[in-house]
Design a protein that fits this description.
The chain is α/β, with parallel strands linked by helices. It contains five helices and seven strands, in the order E-E-E-H-H-E-E-H-E-H-E-H. Helix 3 (about 95-110) packs across helix 4. It is globular, with a radius of gyration of 14 Å. The protein starts with a strand and ends with a helix.
Amino acid sequence: MERTVDGVKIEVVQGDVTSQDDVDAVVNAANAQLERGGGVAGAIHEAAGPGLVEEARPLGPIGPGEAVITGGHDLPNRYVIHALGPVYGQDRPEDELLANCYRNSLALAEEQEIGSVAFPAISTGIFGYPLEEAAEVALRAVIEEAESLQNVRLVRFVLFGAEELEVYERALSER
């Protein structure tokens, strides 16, 4: 499913964020230390190889809502943007911190003149953010940023499972 807002195509697809070979940057649902970890961070680090840890480690720690950028290393993408999502029920205000992950990632993409970015569902794994709420926050943040984007022309949400895909498709169709 896709929708264009202010010249920015927003896509929602099911797949593996490490296999998005037609986008310039993928977003890592990072941990504060920017190390391997599990879930999306583990998959991205596995696919990118050891050079990613070496480049990312000196940039940490980062706080909830913050983002930093590195090269893509062995990924098919030129860049990895690392964003630390909030732990639901612990980092407050959760919705603002989660929205900042998307805003700050897009700001970095703009600075680097990146044309396309693929996001996972940040904070919905072990950080416990409810999927429906996370989808609303993510899509609202991206749609609100769309009018100010000059370089980013494609924002893709890559959801691992069918349930996540359905939730994000519904949220996009309702916006």
